Amino acid sequence: MSLNRSEKEAVINEVTSLAAKAQTLVIAEYRGITVADMTKLRVDARSKGVTLSVLKNTLARRAVTGSTFEVVADQMTGPLIYGFSEDAVAAAKVVADFAKTNDKLVIRGGAFAGKALDVNGVKQLANIPSKEVLLAQLCGLLMSPMSRTAVVLGALAAKKGEGAAAEPAAEAVAA
Fold first, then answer.
1. pLDDT in tens, 17-40
2. Which fold has domain 5-128?
């Protein structure tokens, strides 16, 4: 079904606004995926803040012109699904996780921080822990020196308490 000029402009404007807000773009070929599987992918993506779109490649190229995602415009050929996310790793994680269970979804590439990513780059981005996990790890690292100090001081206090209790007993035996 062909789009008229105003519909094309609306699509370009929508994708341009998505690209302006997004940190990451992941491109994947979806040839042969069933509608049910595509629906599962979209539901999973939506729950994680990722916008998945099947777009005409010429419209997608126009929409990313002038944005940080322009670096992947040459990869926009064939039946592609475009995943935009404001979270740096969410789009890569959603697409890579789905590709593990469905071999018909083939990751083609992506872009992050103005740099083009190949398939391995997208997979590496997907392996980065979530923001919450990274914050928990940081808190653990910050707490580690304090908890070690507390353990050492507790052990010293216990040892001092044992030594103080042993001294009167030793004096009693000597007397």
1. 888 888 899 999 998 899 999 999
2. Alpha-Beta Plaits (3.30.70)
